[in-house]
Amino acid sequence: MKLVLAIMSKEDSGVVMNALTEEKIQVTKLATTGGFLKSGNTTLITGVEDSKVKKVIDIISKCSSKRTQVMPSTMPMDMSVINPLTFEVTVGGATIFVLNVEQYEKV
Ligand code: 2BA
Question: Which phi and psi (to 5°) does residue 56 adopt?
């Protein structure tokens, strides 16, 4: 058995959880904070048989893939002018750890 820990954005975590649950894969969501940005992210924990690890990683990859998003600039402008300034940010992506589980019990 393996424990999959996946750190991702809060926005992507809901979709990932739904997709895992649909596949009857149990998952627990933790509210976490990244050490570098000091902003909130989400860590999902899932314990699965070895044969399901690939499926879990595939679901996470599909539902939280890196993509670019166009954001409006926050630079103040005259309200009568449509602000043409935008910038692209990379959102999504996940950091995944797969650990061996020594023992698994529900008591
Ligand atoms: P990522 O590398 O995609 O990491 C996203 C979040 O995943 C991290 O949030 C952290 O919470 C977790 N994480 C990633 N690798 C980890 C590991 N080996 N062990 C434990 N947790 C891990 P943040 O720490 O807030 O980092 C956000 C983003 O800032 C990172 O995205 C990376 O692109 C950048 N970054 C992180 N540390 C950096 C550093 N020392 N210098 C430059 N950029 C850094």
Answer: -60, -45
The CB of 14 under 6 Å from ligand 1? The reply is no
Nearest Cα residue to atom 33 of ligand 1: 36
Q: Determine the residue type at 92.
A: G
pTM: 0.86
Using an 8 Å Cβ cutoff, are 15 and 63 in contact?
yes
Alpha carbon of 65 to ligand 1 centroid (Å): 16
Model pLDDT, residue 3: 98
Q: Which atom of ligand 1 is nearest to the CA of 38?
A: 25
- pLDDT block averages, 10 residues each, the chain of length 107: 97 96 98 91 97 97 86 65 73 94 97
